[in-house]
Amino acid sequence: MSAPVPFPMAPPVSPPSESGLEVALDAVGTVAIVLGVLLTLVASVGLLSLPDVLSRMHAATKPQVVGLLLVVLGGALHLRTSVDVWMLVLVGAFQLVTAPVTAHVVGRLAHRGDGVRRDLLHVDELADRPDTTDPGPDEPEADEPEPEEPEPATRGRGRDGGGGGVGAGGGGPDGDGTAGRRGRDGAP
């Protein structure tokens, strides 16, 4: 008897080799992601440990935005496809647009209320100027009349005191009092 003939095996397929540029881009992307995560961690520790609203606002905006931009940059260097890169560019752009606006609003509201420790401020530029551009939620606008007291509601009657009418509890077109209370399929 003859020895069995082994099946001819194809040579192993090696993965496509990465060029030196791709390896360098991956390394730079990884470093950017790690730095971004560390900056975001510093921002979260600052939010928990700083004493007042303005200090926390500083920690929430500056290192957090830079950290997110570094993560976005690292992700773009790793992914390198146009759809992914443009999506990450939009994420970074929205963060750059919304973070300063949010910080400004939070700072103004904190200064208006009792959220600012005045002993920690070196200069308080808003102390001598009252904020007249936007009254608080409890103060009416200057050109707006005082709100009137609402009329007491009467159950089952309209403003003229009469009963009935469509939707007022009286008989509807079917005479069963369900006008205006039917679902999508017409069932009560």
Helix percent reads 40-55%
Low-confidence stretches: none
How many strands, which pairing sense, and closed or not: the largest β-sheet?
Answer: none
Radius of gyration (CA) equals: 33 Å
Describe the oligomeric state of these chains in a short phrase. single chain
CATH C-level label of the domain at 22-120? Mainly Alpha
Shape: elongated
Counting H and I runs of at least 4 residues, what is the number of helices? 3
Tell me which CATH architecture of the domain at 22-120 applies here: Orthogonal Bundle
CATH topology of the domain at 22-120: Helix Hairpins
Which structural class fits the helix and strand makeup?
Answer: mainly alpha
Region (Disordered): 120-188
Biased composition (Acidic residues): 136-151
Biased composition (Gly residues): 161-180
Keywords: Membrane, Transmembrane, Transmembrane helix
Helices, strands, pairings?
Elements: H1 20-49, H2 53-79, H3 82-112
What does this protein look like?
It contains three helices and no strands. By secondary structure, the protein is an all-alpha fold. It has a domain at 22-120: Helix Hairpins (Orthogonal Bundle), CATH 1.10.287. The longest helix is centred in the middle third of the chain and has 31 residues, at 82-112. The protein starts with 19 loop residues before the first helix and ends in a 76-residue tail after the last helix. The mean pLDDT is 76.
